[in-house]
Write a structure and sequence with these properties.
149 residues, Alpha-D-Glucose-1,6-Bisphosphate, Chain A, domain 4, 7-stranded antiparallel beta sheet, alpha+beta
């Protein structure tokens, strides 16, 4: 049986450069609770959401206007038996032209249906990409998780 990595995509009426710049600014579409640099090769950053999810990412591939790959160095989920489910996975953003528009495709390589967090995580990625990232690219304003008090 083949395993299927989670993927979701949006098509926008903006340039690949605009989409690439938005992807590289996850504080404006994923979470304001990100610390560290998020836009250059070998940058590392941390993300956290309350006491439920913490992770550390490293940018292992950055091709301007075309591709960004985050490698999950470490991860913690409060709600799964295996609290480190994402560790060692890759979050890949492919940016390409399609039908005179720009497509941004997120593939979370290693996020598979067998994971306990799959339903929660795939739904969250879908919302972040199809709503918040798309909004950031098209209007200049995303809907990231706000800073915690």
């Amino acid at each position: 049986m083949a395993t299927t990595d989670f993927t979701t995509a949006v098509l926008v009426d903006k340039t690949a450069k605009e989409a690439f710049n938005a992807v590289n600014n996850p504080r404006r579409w994923w979470s304001e609770e990100i610390e560290g640099s998020t836009d250059k090769l070998n940058d590392e950053f941390t993300y956290h959401y309350q006491d439920i999810h913490n992770c550390k990412m490293k940018l292992i591939e950055v091709v301007p206007g075309k591709k960004v790959v985050w490698f999950v160095l470490d991860n913690y989920f409060k709600f799964t038996k295996d609290t480190s489910e994402w560790k060692g996975t890759k979050i890949i953003f492919d940016i390409s032209e399609k039908d005179n528009k720009t497509q941004v495709r997120l593939t979370h390589q290693g996020l598979v249906p067998e994971y306990e967090c799959y339903d929660v995580c795939s739904n969250a990625w879908t919302d972040y990409v199809q709503d918040s990232l798309m909004s950031l690219i098209t209007t200049g304003k995303g809907q990231p998780n706000p800073k915690e008090d």
